Amino acid sequence: MGHVVVKYKVTINQPDEGAPDYDGIAGHIDGFEEVQAVEIKPLAFGMMFIEVQAVLGEGEGIVDGFEDKVRGVDPLVGQIEALEMGRL
Fold this sequence. Notes:
About 20% of the residues lie in helices and about 50% in strands. With about 90 residues, it is of the alpha+beta class.
């Protein structure tokens, strides 16, 4: 079985008060064994997003499982969008 590299754009919802903890969320995601790189990037109007590059095995449900894992990091994790995907 091969592997795929997926680059994700993870948006964070704004809390009722203050700013989201981008560093904390990114640090938690970076701890996943599948993750190769994590970077916080500007989005618009002072908002940021987290770009995640992960190496995942090929197989049914593996990509969805990883996305669910990322959603479980924090209740503020919003949309997870695959930006690029390619085989290794």
